Amino acid sequence: MKIGCVTEIKKHEYRVGLTPQCVAAYVLRGHSVTIQAGAGAETGFPDEEYVKAGARIETEAAKVFAGCDMIVKVKEPQPSEYPLLREGQILFTYLHLAADESQTRALLDRKIIGIAYETIRYDDGTLPCLKPMSEIAGRLSIQEGAKYLERPFGGRGVLLGGVPGVPRGKVAILGGGVVGMNAAKMAVGLGADVTVLDVNANRLAYIDDIFRGSVATLYSTEGNIRSILPQLDLLIGAVLIPGARAPRLIRKDHLKLMKKRSVIVDVAVDQGGCVETTRPTTHDDPVFEVDGIVHYCVANMPGAVALTSTIALTSSTLYYGLKIADKGAEAACRNHADLKRGLNVYKGKCTCAEVGSAFALACVDPDTVL
Ligand SMILES: NC(=O)c1ccc[n+]([C@@H]2O[C@H](COP(=O)([O-])OP(=O)(O)OC[C@H]3O[C@@H](n4cnc5c(N)ncnc54)[C@H](O)[C@@H]3O)[C@@H](O)[C@H]2O)c1
Which atom of ligand 1 sits closest to the CA of residue 242? Predict the structure, then answer.
């Protein structure tokens, strides 16, 4: 199969869909790979490394789209890329179609085969191509929180680990899922005093076992949230209710309970945020203040660590990309139920129930088209 990878053109997207190692893996199996010149430059992969791995370099994105059977990307195509997509071409990337009607209609019009990273799902419900980004955002949330606690960045001037004779910084994490666990690991590593709140008793028991007493656990109730807020230096929002807007667990009137210049990192901002005063920010201008509390609400946190994120993402997507390249999209989806759940659009038909119901579109069972 002819595989292509273009430079990401979405603002502040520095990741790239294929690393030189991925190229080598495709080439080893007899496929050919074309990379747009400079596609990996922002991440730290110069064209020469791709060439060494066996890729061909093409200067124009249009020529990559025109000459390849499968395009591997990171973000959804931008409107200027829609006309470049060809009927029957495979697009393998994050799509997030259920939140974007105009893109959904454009991809249906172009009659492509769209396989979305974010809906590839194991039988147990876990999302192998989304999990690495939650792991990164969770770990980064503490790094960013620690930075904005520094006085020159607007915070209270607290060192999370304290020093002998001085209390450690106090961190609470709302939601003990993938983001929450990874945040807890980093916070404990820095020596902070950490509490995780969740509504899932099994999750709290698991965290209690894993951290062997170095993390306190609390049921996430209004009463417990109110009682912990006055003690905090750093609050991490890491709640998720699948398919729904994040619940607003911290309201504006709660901010009065917090210490001045304490920091909130609302990682759940991409689902609307679990803090009422959250609004999405960018890496250019990541923080703002409300009622004396510093808010960090960057919606694509992994973009800040593009190299780590690219390696983590491509390590998960390569497995599926190789299946598609070796067998073709249809057979690969037929043989792998997890990949089949990633099929969102197929040659003009919507094949993902969530996307269909979001825009009242007729939707077909993937088995009828594969
Ligand atoms: N900003 C970013 O760059 C970025 C990156 C990755 C993930 N995210 C977001 O981070 C959020 C968390 O993702 P995840 O992968 O950890 O999800 P997850 O499903 O692994 O964990 C969510 C946890 O929230 C808990 N929860 C649900 N309701 C709760 C409540 N009322 N109080 C406390 N806990 C509650 C669940 O029981 C679960 O343990 C999601 O919104 C995700 O989209 C953002």
Answer: 19
Q: Are residues 64 and 182 in the same domain?
A: no
The first and second tokens of residue 131, run together, are: 């999990």
Q: How far is the CA of 208 from the centre of ligand 1 (A)?
A: 18
Distance of CA 369 to the CA centre of its chain: 29
Is 183 a residue whose pLDDT tops 70? yes
190-246 tens-digit pLDDT: 999 999 999 999 999 999 999 999 999 999 999 999 999 999 999 999 998 876 778
The pLDDT tens digits for 311-325 are 999 999 999 999 999
Mutate to test the pocket of ligand 1, among 239, 248, 254, 275 (most ligand atoms within 8 A of CB): 239
Same domain, 311 and 295: no
Q: Does a structural domain hold residue 129?
A: no
295 and 152 part of one domain: yes
Report pTM: 0.91
Ligand 1 binding pocket includes 199 (Cβ within 6 Å): yes
Ligand 1 probe mutation, 135, 267, 281, 316, most atoms within 8 A of CB: 267
Active site members:
96, 270
- Specify the CATH number for the domain of residue 337: 3.40.50.720
Cβ of 312 less than 6 Å from ligand 1: no
Radius of gyration (C-alpha) of the chain in whole angstroms:
22
User: Are residues 15 and 71 located together in one domain of the fold?
Assistant: yes
Residue 243 confidence (pLDDT): 64
Give the integer Cα–Cα distance in Å for 89 and 173: 43
Query: What is the reported pLDDT for 12?
Result: 83
